[in-house]
Specification:
Length: 333
């Protein structure tokens, strides 16, 4: 039924004119100036609007455009912006906390509520990976978040997600049991430093010692992301934050999509955590889909030998369009 609905909605979208209007916009979160693009369907009226959120690391608005254009064809507007410290936005994502990033998301919602052509009662989030945690925190803080589409993210804690990812990397590298135990010992020191601010010098020494052996890739990566003492508090959440209690506050319609071959985020555990939290919230407007053979971001990585990024799983875009049509445009459960 869900796939049929998606196909019908996609057919409706294709039949409509693909025209849209767009303009450069600027909004603020305190001293940080965030710049992006507001894309509106050409049809007059007040439209439901998607705010595109970012994954980890630097990110500009560019990757959201193809989704925004597809959404515009069915009457959904979009705001996609450069992440703080990326593109033309000011600030720094490196020295920002989860609270800062969630506040950026809510600043986008507040800005959209003032814009002609936007239905202020139907503004929601779209995001991949780390955006799952950002959206969860933001939605738990504001009743103005009307819906969410989240891909390969959230549910489990950042620490559990990171440990899962490293475990998969250790397996792929063919590390022995002893090497794996040593690797997790280093990770324990790293997360302990993030959580408490203690043991940095011991961690640095341990990373230096591991820099020439089989654990050198781990040591190199942790050295790259090891925050300075003055910035450590902004990254404490990676070691300590639990999204579970906040998921239990989310009442809006949610579409969650995962791949069952994801080696960056633990799909089975994330799905269960999302289900548990949404059940506590009494949220009966959640749709969870797991795409067979898909990895992180619903991309079909296994066996892919082409150039560029692997393709998305079949039906990925259609499901989003169909879900938006039913749950946001038509407003049905």
């Amino acid at each position: 039924m869900a796939i049929l609905l998606a196909a019908v909605a996609h057919g409706l979208a294709s039949a409509q004119a693909s025209q849209f209007t767009e303009r450069e916009v600027t909004f603020r979160n305190g001293s940080v100036e965030l710049r992006g693009t507001l894309m509106l369907p050409v049809v007059k009226g007040r439209h439901p609007t998607v705010v595109f959120l970012h994954g980890s690391g630097p990110a500009t608005r560019a990757g959201a455009r193809m989704y925004a254009e597809e959404f515009a064809r069915i009457g959904v507007a979009s705001l996609f912006f450069d992440k703080r410290g990326s593109g033309s936005s000011s600030g720094s994502w490196i020295s920002s906390s989860l609270d800062d990033l969630a506040a950026d998301a809510l600043a986008a919602v507040e800005y959209l509520k003032t814009q002609e052509g936007v239905d202020s009662g139907r503004i929601g989030f779209w995001g991949v990976s780390q955006a799952g945690w950002i959206a969860t925190l933001a939605a738990s803080q504001s009743p103005d978040v009307a819906f969410m589409i989240l891909i390969s993210g959230g549910g489990v804690s950042p620490r559990d997600s990171e440990l899962f990812s490293y475990e998969q990397a250790f397996k792929q590298a063919g590390l022995s049991e002893a090497e794996t135990v040593a690797g997790f010992g280093i990770l324990d020191m790293y997360f302990s430093y993030l959580a408490t601010g203690e043991g940095r010098s011991q961690l640095v020494a341990r990373l230096k010692a591991a820099g020439t052996g089989r654990l050198s890739p781990l040591a190199q990566q942790l050295n790259q992301i090891l925050p300075a003492e003055e910035n450590r508090a902004n990254w404490k959440w990676v070691a300590t934050w639990d999204p579970g209690p906040l998921i239990a506050r989310i009442k809006c319609p949610v579409l969650l999509m995962f791949g069952d071959r994801d080696t960056d985020h633990p799909t089975a555990a994330a799905v269960q955590k999302w289900r548990d939290g949404l059940m506590q919230a009494g949220n009966d407007q959640a749709t969870i889909m797991v795409f067979p053979g898909a990895g992180h971001g619903i991309r079909m990585r296994e066996g892919y030998t082409g150039t560029g990024r692997p393709p998305f799983a079949d039906g990925y875009a259609d499901v989003m369009v169909g879900w938006l049509w039913r749950h946001v445009i038509l407003g049905k459960k």
